[in-house]
Amino acid sequence: MSDSRTLVGLGVSPGIAIGKPVIVENRPLPVMRVPLSPVQIDPEVARLRKAAKSAAKHLLDLAREAAKTVGAEYASIFEAHRLMLEDPALLDEVERLIRGEAVNAEWAVAETAEALVGRFRDLPDEDLALRATDLDDVSRIVTQRFKIFRDFRRRTLRVVQLVAFRQVNPGRLHKTDSQKI
């Protein structure tokens, strides 16, 4: 008995693929709320700032690489994400939550992003409402700077694979090696 399945989506590599697929799902990263003592708050804010700086550099690198390989329009997505991250209002709000509730940076980023995403999605202007997805991406990128994750993009595939993403963000798609997939 055959376990045959047809996957439908947008192709990012030319040609027809037949084979066993590797399915990649984007799921929210688990974030725990960790209470902090008063002496832990300043180091936690410093940790937030370091993660944000690392994420901004990562986004700038992605924008530069994308501009060279796939064009300015695609690179502008990463540049917009970087600008959102470097907006003082965003990080100041996260810092206020860390200091006000004495909680860890991951939790503060997630809570702040969730509140802002809700506000963006409620906007009557459809273009602005779509920025909620960008803010979700920025939040995820910063959160990844706090932890070490096994990263799909860095794993070397030994053979040509058929890879299907249920939903893909620009950073993951850009870093996927289309020569091996």
Return residue spans where pLDDT drops below 50 for at least 5 consecutive residues.
Answer: 148-160
What's the overall geometry? Answer: globular
Which percent range describes the beta-strand content? under 5%
CATH H level, superfamily name of the largest domain: PtsI, HPr-binding domain
Number of discrete domains = 2
Rg over alpha carbons: 19 Å
Under CATH at level 1, the class of the largest domain stands as Mainly Alpha
Helix content: 55-70%
Helix count?
Answer: 7
Beginning-to-end CA distance, first to last residue:
27 Å
Give the number of DSSP strands. Answer: 2
| Helix-strand string | EHHHHHHEH
Mind summarizing the main beta sheet?
Answer: 2 strands, parallel
Instruction: Supply the helix-strand structural class.
Output: mainly alpha
Q: Give the strand order of the largest sheet, numbering strands 1, 2, ... along the chain.
A: 1-2
CATH topology of the largest domain: Enzyme I, Chain A, domain 2
